[in-house]
Structures are given as structure tokens and as C-alpha cells.
Amino acid sequence: MNVDGRRLFHVLGRGYVRHAPGVLGKRALARNYLVPQLREHPVRRPARTRSGARFLVDTEDLIQRHLYLFGVWEPHLTHWLKQRLKPGDVFVDVGANVGYFSVLGSSLVGPEGTVVAIEASSTFHRQLVQQAQMNRCRNLRTVNAAVSDKDETVTFVQASSRNTGATSTVPYSGPALAEFEVDAHPLTMLLSEQEIERARVIKIDVEGAEGAAVRGLKPAFARLREDAEVVVEVTPERMRALGDSAEELLTSFTEAGFHAYRLVNDYDPGSYPSAIRRPLPPRRWRQPVSEEMDLVFSRVDAESLA
Predict the structure, then answer these.
(1) CB atoms within 10 A of CB 109
(2) How many other CB atoms are found less than 10 A from the CB of residue 140?
(3) Exposure of 9 by Cβ count < 10 A (0-12 exposed, 13-18 middle, 19+ buried)?
(4) 116 and 93 in contact (C-beta within 8 Å)?
(5) % of the chain beyond a pLDDT of 90
């Protein structure tokens, strides 16, 4: 297929996946054709999310490719945040990447609320600032730093341009696209007292460093509002590589009166049409964490956080 034919198919296929009613054929079209083509023949242009935000995307990257194709990233988490965040709230986005959840949160908490977007990579941080400016997010404060349980300097490795969200401090022996050092601090040092006390949702997605991130936040647990909830992407294998454990992380929350809920998170593009149509709430989780998963920690004692 020539360039013009490929471009036309992209436009028509994307239009069908994003706007046609129902899910008929969308799973196969997205997974088997559109995603491989957008990865191998990247589109670099502005795209609008389902929430109305505009993003400059490069479809070589996993996150930005999903934004371009579906208009959403992590649809179950997106839906849950829309239910949780209200005008005047504070939303803390740790591991903000290019800012999808930060910009979404900005629109949800309104001019009386605040979003704090923390991103370690200076490259992603520049993109984050650009996206915030493009969407006129005047209530969004960005921080170019890593999070830890102490003040230190950490080294990050970006293994590939095809999944920038996997940039991590976990030791990596293969060829790397980029490597950089950045100062790291506990969340209690990066957030103001008011931001800690007013935080409604804190999202932590730091690719293995979640153990240190939670230890750095733990001294502030007692100062969080009663309905505060913390969303953590828990990656047991990466945590072990850094000398941490998912069990310790869960214990930190349960000892402080929080309950764990699992939030469905599937990066398979074939799952997106159904997830967008019928997003699922977090369900109570009482088992050990043996695989990568998103957990919501809440003081609500129920079977789901509907």
C-alpha cells in the first residue's frame, strides 16, 4: 500500500474505531492493522482526547498511539478518576509522562482545584509543560524530579522510543535509547502542606520505584483527608530488582487503615473498544500481588469502588 493509501486507511479506520457505535470489528481492526501501521509508520500531529483535550502525539510511542487511535489511555482508570475528582480537589500525578492524566485532572478539579504533575524525565517534562500550556491548564503545577524515600540522585534508563512509559530506574543490561540522572525526593518534600491535606487522589506510576515512593509518602498518611485515595501501579518483578517487595507496600497501606482494590488495566488495543464502552470499577483485592496490576488504596470498606 502506498503512502496515500495508507494515510486514507488510517483516517477511515481511526474514524470507525473512535466514532462508530458498538464494537463490531473494532478489536481486530485496531489490533491487527491500525496499531502495527501507526507504530511502523508514525503519525506526528495534534489529536483530541475523548475528554476534549488536545495533545501533540507521536504514534511510535505506546501511550501516544492509544491517545491518537482511541482518544483515551487506560479507560478504566480514566472513568474512575472522572467519578472521583470534583471541583476544588487536589490531584497528584506521580510519573506524569506527557501529561494525559494531569490534563484530565486539571479539567475535573477546575479553577479552584490543583494538579501537581511530577515527572523525572526532562524530555517528558518539557512535553508535559507544552501539553498543559496547549490546554490552558492554569491550575497545574509541574515538578521535574523523581520520587523516593530520601533525598538522592537516581539513574533512569529509557530502553525504547516505542514505550516511553517504561522508562525506569530498574537496572537494564541491554542497549538503551537514553540514560539520565535526576534528583529524587520524598513526596512530603515535593508537595506543600496544603496539597497533602487537600489531595483527593494520588496516582503513582513509577515503574518499579513505587516502594520508595510510598515510603516517602507514608509519614503524611495521617494528614491526608479521610476520603483520600492512592492509585499505585504495582510491579512486583521490577520492585524485587530494586530490593523492594509488593507485600511491604500493601502492609504500609493496610496498617494505615486502607483497603486494596484492583483496577483493570489492559494495554492490549483489542480490549479498548469494550473498555471504553463499559469501564469497570475497582474491585476488592485480598490476595498477594504476584503480577503487575493497578491497585487503589481507599479507606472505604466495600466490595467495589463504584
Answers:
(1) 23
(2) 26
(3) middle
(4) yes
(5) 87
pLDDT tens digits, 24-66: 999 999 999 999 999 999 999 999 999 999 999 999 999 999 9
Residues 60-111 have pLDDT tens digits of 999 999 999 999 999 999 999 999 999 999 999 999 999 999 999 999 999 9
Q: Please say whether the beta carbons of 158 and 177 come within 8 A.
A: yes
Using the structure block, give the residue that is written with the C-alpha cell 520505584.
Answer: 209
- pTM confidence score: 0.94
Range list of H helices, the chain: 3-19, 26-29, 35-40, 62-70, 75-84, 100-109, 122-134, 187-190, 193-198, 210-217, 236-241, 246-254, 272-277
Q: CATH topology for 73-298?
A: Rossmann fold (3.40.50)
Provide the β-strand partners of residue 262: 283, 295
Answer positive or negative: Cα dihedral of 116, 215, 126, 58.
negative
Q: Which of 259, 140, 148, 146 is nearest to 195 (CA)?
A: 140
CA–chain centroid gap for 136, Å, is 20
DSSP string computed for 145-156: -EE-SSSEEEEE
Q: Where are the domains of the chain?
A: 3-69, 73-298
- The set of cell numbers assigned to 231 is 492509585
User: Grid coordinates in use for 104?
Assistant: 484530565
Residue of 118, 246, 260 whose CA lies nearest to 192: 118
Say how far apart CA 38 and CA 297 lie, in whole Å: 36
